């Protein structure tokens, strides 16, 4: 009898404990990026930005609609592949996530956005810059960086007016991102009165560029623009050096990483590379500069790794999404989505607010070069 009573008391205690723990509302936030393949270092950088935000939110003890929340990060790998990207998106939808941060590449973000839209799940991309992403009319699609029209166009103008490029060659990797940013760069060159002398194509897995570089060498370019990622840009820079192509090398945010000097294996001359990131902090804004410096220090301490490119934007995207949930008093996508569309949030990357398409308002662009193997800011453009 005593044993039976103990069992009943124990069971009652478990039930009581369960009801106490049930008061914690679980909010699932998905993150998708390429954590395998040639740009896994960029995908991991993005995922770590999300993880840092989630860990800090859980440490703070956020409440939504009067209930204490436990945030869970559901991280998926899309390997930068559109098919794997849509499979990852469907998996997150089936897992009933409350929102998604990602994907990293435009080529995976665009097809995945339809899946999230059909499910009514808000998606904030921290790094997809192809304009098509927010031009499909999906109310669930947002981004916290400027798009390729701004990025490619600004670089094209810069190549003509500042670099003084007289014969400009363009190469792209045929991805949604690479081709998109190269097209906008070419338009920017023409609008500034410049001339392109050749357009060549490769792919995002290529390692040998001898044929296309030899073809361009005959045209004596003083600027070579590459639309693609750093994993391809590094070997391309090495082969340009081997072939004696002495030209400025320009590219978008895909090449603008801390890894590029390593991938180029020491063949980059100081100031040879000019790249742009969609985003940036004006160095004259002391408070914003300090917030970003503090973020980088915390990130390094937590992950024993330097920020590559977009970890701060992922971090801000998570916090922006959660701020909308808190303001709406609900983590249900249908309830907080209208609040997210009108949100104003001050993050480590600056002020975040979206226009009617879901694009960030007044998006910044930062130009960089490399000296002594280190990335150096050349200024912020809006």
UniProtKB/TrEMBL annotation:
CDD domains: PBP1_ABC_LIVBP-like (cd06342). GO terms for biological process: amino acid transport. Residues 1-22 form the signal peptide. Residues 27-373 form the Leucine-binding protein domain. Pfam families: Peripla_BP_6. Keywords: Amino-acid transport, Signal, Transport. Transmembrane segments: none annotated. Belongs to the leucine-binding protein family. This is Branched-chain amino acid ABC transporter substrate-binding protein. The lineage of its organism: Bacteria, Pseudomonadati, Pseudomonadota, Betaproteobacteria, Burkholderiales.
């Amino acid at each position: 009898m005593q044993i039976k009573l103990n069992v009943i008391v124990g069971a009652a205690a478990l039930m009581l404990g369960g009801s106490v723990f049930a008061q914690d509302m679980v909010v699932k936030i998905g993150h998708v990026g390429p954590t395998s393949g040639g740009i896994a270092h960029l995908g991991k950088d993005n995922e770590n930005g999300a993880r840092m935000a989630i860990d800090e939110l859980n440490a703070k003890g956020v409440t939504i609609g009067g209930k204490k929340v436990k945030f869970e990060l559901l991280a998926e790998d899309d390997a930068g592949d559109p098919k794997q990207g849509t499979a990852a998106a469907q998996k997150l939808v089936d897992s009933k996530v409350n929102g998604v941060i990602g994907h990293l590449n435009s080529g995976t973000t665009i097809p995945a956005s339809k899946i999230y839209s059909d499910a009514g799940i808000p998606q904030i991309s921290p790094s997809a810059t192809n304009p098509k992403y927010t031009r499909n009319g999906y109310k669930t699609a947002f981004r916290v960086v400027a798009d390729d029209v701004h990025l490619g166009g600004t670089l094209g103008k810069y190549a003509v007016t500042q670099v003084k490029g007289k014969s400009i060659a363009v190469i792209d990797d045929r991805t949604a991102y690479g081709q998109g940013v190269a097209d906008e760069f070419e338009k920017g060159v023409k609008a500034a009165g410049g001339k392109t002398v050749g357009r060549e194509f490769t792919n995002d897995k290529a390692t040998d560029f001898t044929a296309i570089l030899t073809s361009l060498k005959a045209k004596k370019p003083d600027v070579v623009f590459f639309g693609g990622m750093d994993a391809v840009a590094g070997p391309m820079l090495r082969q340009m050096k081997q072939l004696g192509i002495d030209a400025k090398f320009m590219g978008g945010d895909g090449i603008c990483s801390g890894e590029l000097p390593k991938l180029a294996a020491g063949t980059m001359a100081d100031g040879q590379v000019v790249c742009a990131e969609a985003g940036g902090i004006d160095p004259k804004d002391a408070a914003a500069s300090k917030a970003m410096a503090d973020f980088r220090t915390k990130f390094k301490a937590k992950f024993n790794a330097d920020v590559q490119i977009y970890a701060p934007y992922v971090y801000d995207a998570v916090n922006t999404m959660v701020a909308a949930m808190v303001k709406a008093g609900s983590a249900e996508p249908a309830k907080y989505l209208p609040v997210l569309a009108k949100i104003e949030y001050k993050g480590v990357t600056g002020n975040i607010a979206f226009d009617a398409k879901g694009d960030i308002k007044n998006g910044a662009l930062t130009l960089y070069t490399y000296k002594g193997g280190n990335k150096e800011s050349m200024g912020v453009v809006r």
